[in-house]
């Protein structure tokens, strides 16, 4: 398995790469400057040496040909560079030099720093140089090494500090994100990444924490749902087991048929519980896609009231106050939510249930009021959890599995809305749903 890089390794890699690139760029820049300025520097040196060349030529031409070499040797102590007198133009000089010397002008060798000047009226060539007295091998090496050390101190050290200071927060954030993702992968859904120091990783940190919160919520919901389903299954299974035992002990066919009918109802209850639990899980996972329609409120809610009339107790009065207009929502899901609210109100209302529908500030607001016993404030949030019933003694009388209000909250959240519970003007509980409206 490949060993992961440490911060020191990453720092060394970036520092070495940065310094290498900087060094190459610096060499290229120096080479470019030398190339551009070489001809100019050469002309400048030749112009500076013109006076010296003229003096030497005049002094040598004063002497007889056989004494010119001795005269040059006598002049040598006055100059810091060598002076020589050649019999002819050296054959190794380029054609450019030969042409220049043939015209009577001096020529400077830019590499060797040797200045060649013809001695007028003769075939002799005056050689002056090397003019640069600091081009010895040892001195050149010492100078280059010194320049490299200075360059590293003045550029490398500040660059190292700059890279380290900028890399450290990125590295710390990256390690924190890696540790958090490892903990999440190991099953610790409560793990959260600390606030990022680097703006580069700040969006990733927020996204990772948001994902972790969603995963933790989903896992908690699924665990609670699984426990609740297991708890709900116990009662019909126990009744089925009891029915089987009693069927074996029945004395006649009529009594046996009664136990069989009871077992059939228990099987039907189990089937309904499984179906509604699967539907709830599918909606909770976000697998249900919203199908928005533009709805005429009066027509749609009048139909809703007609559809729930068979479930209304005969002694209960149901009223609807709907504002005219149009709204957008998923008609199937909102039908389930509003029907569940009305059926819940039918269970606990004494004499009256009232439903109101309003369009307020870009929200479709639906409320259902009843004149029942109401809901204590401490229980209002818990009542939307799966399989929660406040009145356990009335579970079998009122029916249901305790998922109706949970569906209401899921459907509201799926639309981007919310649900709430308050006190109704009728004296009981008020359940409300608000759904944000989209363009028609």
CATH class label of the domain at 292-436: Alpha Beta
Please tell me the overall pLDDT: 79
- What would CATH call the architecture of the domain at 292-436? 2-Layer Sandwich
Uncertain regions spanning at least 5 consecutive residues:
133-142, 392-401
Please name the CATH topology of the domain at 292-436: Heat Shock Protein 90
Order of helices and strands: HHEHEEEHHHEHEEHEEHHEE
Question: What is the percent of helical residues?
Answer: 55-70%
Largest sheet: spatial strand order = 6-8-9-11-10
Class computed from helices, strands and strand pairing: alpha+beta
CATH superfamily of the domain at 292-436: Histidine kinase-like ATPase, C-terminal domain
Number of extended strands:
11
Report the β-strand fraction as a percent range. 5-15%
Distance between the termini: 58 Å
Helices, by number, come to 10
Q: What's the gyration radius in Å?
A: 49 Å
Describe it.
With 440 residues, this protein is of the alpha+beta class. It has 10 helices and 11 strands. Among the domains are: 122 residues, no CATH class; 145 residues, Histidine kinase-like ATPase, C-terminal domain (Heat Shock Protein 90, 2-Layer Sandwich), CATH 3.30.565. The strands form 3 sheets. The protein has a 5-stranded mixed beta sheet with strand order 6-8-9-11-10, with helices on one face. Strands 1-4-3-2 form a 4-stranded antiparallel beta sheet, sandwiched between helices. The chain is rod-shaped and about 160 Å long. It starts with 6 loop residues before the first helix and ends with a strand. About 5% of the residues have low confidence.
